[in-house]
Amino acid sequence: PPSAIPEKKCFVKVVAIGDSGVGKTSLIQMFEHSRFTESFKPTIGADFSNKEVTIGGKIVTLQIWDTAGQERYQSLGTAFYRGADCCLLVYDITSQSTFENLSQWKSSFIQKGMIVNPETFPFMIVGNKLDIAEDNRQVSEYALQKFCKENGEMTYIEASALNNLNVEKAFCKLAEIALKRQELMQKKTDDYIVQEKLRERAQKLGRASGAQRQNNGNRENCQ
Ligand code: GDP
Ligand code: MG
């Protein structure tokens, strides 16, 4: 009976990258524990933590990967990127250079993560530190929109980990896009399997009717 079939587990690996100091860890901590801490000791060893969220009625496990500060030396290992379902690209609204480095972060993610269809891959650009943007803004919303448009209509949001502004929205929106893509890819695989089965059956039928034609060969010739 259908009730005996367990609901398929939804799992999304999220990778957060961007320059050191833009607020990646702060955003993740705020999202996971609703708290902002002034400074974090770089975590050694544990690279990820899981958080369950409900998206469109489904329980989804977000596995969020944070760096342990290796981004300072551009020495993030491939394990960090591999198998990612989506990527949070973070910059600091009050620092132009962190915005300019996004392209570099994006391309090394695609390269090291061996992303197969980068043009449809779920990226979310987060401009962090919106709370101090009024006096210190270096990156305009226009520049952000332009960048996202030029990079295949990437999704974006301005946020503040300090004020807990748009933090949950950023993660949940990204997870939602990632789930949609997973479903689409699953459907493509399912369709492919169905097509293969149909092809196989057609081939078998073809062989069978071919054999029959040979058997009926005489009669056919008589007509
Ligand atoms: P990471 O290196 O990208 O992980 O950045 P951190 O999360 O460690 O944050 C770097 C610094 O920026 C810390 O001093 C944080 O307190 C500060 N910070 C992070 N997010 C915000 C924010 O939204 N607003 C403000 N004003 N400061 C922030
Ligand atoms: Mg950090």
List keywords for this structure.
223 residues, 6-stranded mixed β-sheet, binds guanosine-5'-diphosphate
Describe this structure in words.
The chain has 223 residues and is of the alpha/beta class. The chain has helices at 24-33, 78-81, 96-100, 102-112, 133-136, 141-150, 167-215, 217-222, and strands at residues 10-17, 48-55, 58-65, 86-92, 123-128, 155-158. Strands 2-3-1-4-5-6 form a six-stranded mixed sheet, sandwiched between helices. It is elongated, with a radius of gyration of 25 Å. The relative contact order is 0.15.
SSE blueprint and pairings:
Blueprint: E1 10-17, H1 24-33, E2 48-55, E3 58-65, H2 78-81, E4 86-92, H3 96-100, H4 102-112, E5 123-128, H5 133-136, H6 141-150, E6 155-158, H7 167-215, H8 217-222
Parallel strand pairs: 1-3, 1-4, 4-5, 5-6
Antiparallel strand pairs: 2-3
Residues 20-26, 38-40, 128-129, 131-132, 160-162 line the site of guanosine-5'-diphosphate.
